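Support request, please re-run this one:
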Amino acid sequence: MGRGKVFLNVLLNKVQALAMIDKELMRSEPEKVRKALESRGDGLKAFDKLLKLDAEWRAMKGEADSLRAERNKLGLEIAKAAKAKKDIAPLKRKGEKIAKRLGEIGEKEKKLEEKRIGIMLTVPNLPHESVPAGKDSSGNVDVREWGKVKRGSADVEPHYELGPRLGVIDFERGAKLGGHRFTVLSGWAAKLERALGQFMVSLQIGRGYRELSVPYLVKTEVMEGTGQLPKFKEDLYETEDGLWLIPTAEVPLVNVHRDEVLEEAQLPISYCGLTPCFRREAGAYGKDIKGLIRQHQFTKVELVKFALPEKSYSELEKLTLDAEAVLQQLELPYKVVELCTGDLGFAASKTYDVEVWIPSQDTYREISSCSNCGEFQARRADIKVRRKEGLEYAHTLNGSGLAVGRCMVSLIENFQEDRGIRVPKALQPYMETDYIEMK
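Re-run finished. Output below.
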């Protein structure tokens, strides 16, 4: 096999791995896909380009197949003419023209496949049919609430004032070390961050998750596998040698099984991991400037599941309950919101946001997004499951369990009293106290 053919096969394999849309669905029901993307509010232009390139590719492939058939037929004619001792020079010249044209087509196919790969990476996932229609967050639907809201902005000192006053949250020294949106925690605040992370992981292990410790730096193809690249490149930190700091543990946890075939009996597989997360927040300047809500570096527990396609949406309900369990144990009021089509994340087919009450802001703020990505990530990372009927793509799910910084904010403000902060019973073994004196 020639080098050009090998290169083309590699490209074709990559296209299949990165294609989030089943090519048969794309070709047989393009309007269905277009309608789904239109409801999301993005990806439609990219999909139309993809359709056009696919039509060009199929036309090119059809021509190449016809030329190969003609070349094979010509080979038989040359052999027959040579046996009859006839002049085969005209037939050879014809064969050379066919070979030249096939070479030209091969070069065009390479360029075409490169374009297809680039476009495929920018097409978002399709919303599940159960997702409510809507253009933006105003179309989201409240699902349930838990706990009673007891404090508002008039009742508490904001964490971004209380922490610096007590000398345990230092934004100035954080900026001195890393710049804007970096923070130094000390004393009980540092211990609270550590205690919350340990508590969250222990809780999820008890609920059936397997803890993994993963790299914080990953390869480009790993970022592509979960959909961070190229979509969110501006929000990511890249090193000079081509590695990327993880924006969430979802990235390494999902890619743990990239290029693997899982056995049906293994599923569902549930992983959790506690890691720092790194985000430039390039598109978020001016938002949540004060405090720990939106930092360039923050700690988070991530939950990831691999599930059978027919069971993944019931697994999403369970995963959401797992995230909620953290807030219930910590006695923090929250609500669950189902995102509409126009507010879905790039890789998600269905998402529930869990929002915790932040007294100083008199509002609920997102602390976990629990999503079913269907086969979107599994296609990009090439994660399959072996079944009696053959191989098919697994479904991947993810959700925060939870964002530690935002949980700290809610806890400090919701349990704030005149002389200190009450520690929820579930967290007391990790904090080694039931009360934080505000000295």
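The two ends are 75 Å apart (CA to CA). Residues 1-19 have pLDDT under 50 and may be disordered.
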